[in-house]
């Protein structure tokens, strides 16, 4: 559900910033030093050796789309193997609905088209509209990465729950904006970013601006980008694997593939993209066991 983000201006206290416009002079004498921050050596290495890459306005797009490719590919191979790999196929949520290579290609090329035709041009426009990117010299603490990252995920989860609920309740909005994502009743990894342009740009705006609003460190933002895409792909894999995050995180805090798979079969349920609290609070949570009963009913009818 989360698309590649467009360029963003990170809000960092000016006294600790590296201005990209002064790159040739600053790069020669960056104050790299020993730090009690565990991520400082990694951050120093990025600034010293990869500054042109991480300061590029296209870096967030590259990071997000490459994560989508890397995370989706293994599950696509798993789908293509199907029953030939019974040790994995036993976890398939809808075993009677197996994605074909043509379906995978359709989803992937829609995502690719959206990024080439809409996301990349929006980045180019952002170069002329947004302030120059600035990077802090100090790395975030692990505590900051965790707390700020969790705050970004919770904020996005709330925004998307409201948006998702409205678009399923309003038939015109659903048909014009969200129906593209529901082309297939059984989701699969490549369908993660099968989105209409309005949905892509909406969630892209949140993905881009929420870290700015919460004043996250760029490194935190990039970690959240990769992690949220992993969560999104995991939601769409169509397998209830015992080692996925929804099983590893206790108390049913995450919906995971079972919840989102159920949403594609019963669209008026499980609206939240990651967490389960809003669906529980508003009574829209439907557990997978109902899905299994439905499948049994289908087979006997």
Profile the largest sheet: 2 strands, antiparallel
DSSP helical segment count: 14
Indicate the overall shape: globular
Helix content: 55-70%
Q: Supply Rg.
A: 21 Å
Order of helices and strands: EHHHHHHEHHHHHHHH
Number of strands: 2
Note poorly predicted spans.
3-16, 21-29, 290-301
Spatially, the strands of the biggest sheet line up as: 1-2
Strand content: under 5%
Distance between the termini: 34 Å
Class by alpha and beta content: mainly alpha
Overall mean confidence score, pLDDT: 87
List the helices and strands and how they pair.
Layout: E1 17-19, H1 23-26, H2 40-49, H3 51-54, H4 59-81, H5 86-89, H6 101-129, E2 134-136, H7 142-169, H8 171-178, H9 197-213, H10 218-236, H11 245-248, H12 256-265, H13 277-281, H14 288-300
Antiparallel strand pairs: 1-2
Helix pairs in contact: 4-10, 7-8, 7-9, 7-10, 10-12
